[in-house]
Every structure is written in C-alpha cells, then in structure tokens.
Amino acid sequence: MAGVTVIKPDLQAIKQIMASGGESVKKCFQCATCSVVCNISPDSKPFPRKEMIQAQWGLKEELVKNPDIWLCHQCSDCTAYCPRGAKPGEVLGALRQMCIQHYATPPLLAKMVGDPRSLPLLIAFPILLLLAALKLTGHLAIPAGPIVYSKFFPTLLVDFIFVPAFFFAVAVLAKGVMAYWKDINVNPWKVKAKGNLVGNLIATLTDILWHNRFRKCEVTYQRSTNHLLVLFGFIFLLIVTSWGFLNEWVLHHDSPYRIYEPIKLLAMVGTAALLYGIYNIIKQRQANAEQAGAGSYFDWMFIYVVLVVGATGLLAWLFRLVGIKILAYPTYFLHLSSVFFLFFYAPYTKMAHMVYRTVAMLYARMSDRGF
Ligand code: SF4
Ligand code: SF4
Fold this sequence. Notes:
Elements: H1 11-19, H2 33-37, H3 49-57, H4 60-64, H5 68-71, H6 77-81, H7 88-103, H8 107-113, H9 119-136, H10 149-152, H11 155-184, H12 197-209, H13 222-249, H14 262-287, H15 289-292, H16 297-322, H17 325-344, H18 353-366
C-alpha cells in the first residue's frame, strides 16, 4: 500500500466545527470559488478550499496547526460567493475557535468558555470574587461623601486581584502560543520560518496596526474600519491603564485625572473609538447576516464583553461627574467585573486571536507565503 494515505474522519471534531458556527461545512463540493475570490489568500496553496475538505473530514490535528486559518480575517467575501452556501468564512471562524481551545490550559476552562451553558457560571465567578474581596476588607457599602471610586474599591485591592489575573492570562497564552509556534513550524507542508525574527515581527505588527490585509476585503469592507477603531480604542485604554499603574506605584499620585489632562483625553478618545467601533460591528453583522453569516456564540460573546467593558466604563465616569452615587458605585463594580472577565478568560475567548493571528502572520511572512 506504498503511497496510499489512509484518512480517518474524526466525527467528534466534525461535530465540534459544526457546533461552533461551521454547520454548513458539509455543503462544500470543492469548486474552489472561495480560494479564487479571497483577496488575501496566497497563490501557492491557497485557502480556504483546502481547509473546507479538511474540516469535512475532521482532520483536527492538521487544522489546529494550519497557520492559514489565521490569515483569514473573516471578511466573508468567500461566503458571499460560495455557490453552495457552505459559508467558508464561518467555517474558518469555527476552526480558529478550535485552535484557541486546543492550545489553552486547563482544557476544562477552554471547554466551558466555548459552551453557552457555562456562561452564567463564568459571569458569576468575577462578581462573587469581587464581592468577597469587598466583604473581607469591610468595603461592602456605599461610602459617604463625594464619589471617589478608590474609597469603595481601594486601588491596592484592585491590584491585588487584577495583577495575578493578568499574569495568569499571560502565562496561559504564552504557553499555548509557544506550543503553537512549534507546531506550525512542522505544519502539513513542513516549511520552517527563517530570517530576522525581530525585523519580521515589526513588519507584521505594522501590517496589523494599519489593517493592510484586512482592508483588501470587499463584501464587508467597513468591518476593517470598525475593527481598527476597536483596536485603537483598546490600545489607548491600555496606555491609560498602564499610566495609572505607573502613577500609583512609581509617581505615588493617586487622585482622579482632571478632564483637560492629556491622559484623560486619551481615555475619552479610546472609549469613544471602542464603543463606536463595536456598535458598528454589531449593526453590520446583523445587517449582513444573510450574505456573510450570522457569527457564532464565540464571536458574539467577545463582542458583547467588549461592549459591556466600554459602556460601564463610560457610565461610571458620567455618573461620577453628575454625582449619582446609587448608580455610580454599582456601575463601577460591573465595570471591574467585566474587565476581569475580559482579561482572565482572554486565553480561551476570541481575545486570544490578537496573539495567534500575529504569530501566524509572522510565520507566513517568514516562510514566504506572500505576507
Ligand atoms: S466552500 Fe463553497 S466556494 Fe469554497 S470550495 Fe466549497 S463549495 Fe466551493
Ligand atoms: S472570509 Fe475573507 S479572508 Fe477569510 S477566507 Fe473568506 S474571503 Fe478570505
């Protein structure tokens, strides 16, 4: 039987793909229209046709270490033109979810995050944790006097909870991504990344920052603009948070910023960009659902968490400005809970796409895949 490759379909993997938004995968009849219309796909070994057949067979081991699933930006050009309604863009989204869950530890938490039935438990965890912290430190009450959030939730207590949560997420992500990098270098076509790692990483990050690839999409072109707004909003708010941390621990300056201070303006611009971008993403996803696919639970959960983080942050600020205590403190508490949710579960949610896509694009650049 020399030269014959025996393929054993993995039924479990097929079920997983179909349950994660790729329910139409079986409709594909391999016409390759999708690979032709995709403006991002390289000429050599183009995607997503080959991924569609691998997904139909449930070749999980090959699919999770296939860097091409991350080169796709889910613009849905291929989904709009697929003559069979197989929704290749959605299938690739399901494969990316499978990849994130495959490399995340512990697997139970990864499974829970992908399962809508576990959502109440996942939401309850940060809320109960923060409530317990307030109770144990005697802060479970609305403080007297003007609204000062650090009187309600002391900054030190915030750091005590959020810093370990942040490092937990970074450690899980780093472990997953290192395993992924190792695997993609022995991918199905066995091409190893070569060249200057730092130089190529800078070029890749520049590509991502300006969405040079994403902007080649046509059917849902505006998605790239809205995604860029969310990305920059996120970067600005990360700068503001890091500045706050520096202020507290190095400069020992812990009072609220004045409205005209540059850092406050950056926070306002960041929040506006984040909220405007995510609002448009929701609106357009709903408007394009028939043509481009409705999106999976995994996608929507991430979108709504980002929305809650941005909205509660903005409302907590507004309620403080107008002095409505009864709304300000609970909103601030919800804001902290949603930020914890966003970061603590990051290695298991769509948030991890920031890291996996960067690594896959870096690999593509370093292995001459036309990136
Ligand atoms: S996903 Fe659609 S366009 Fe792509 S190969 Fe299959 S049938 Fe053709
Ligand atoms: S969704 Fe867009 S980027 Fe992804 S494979 Fe289809 S056409 Fe290409």
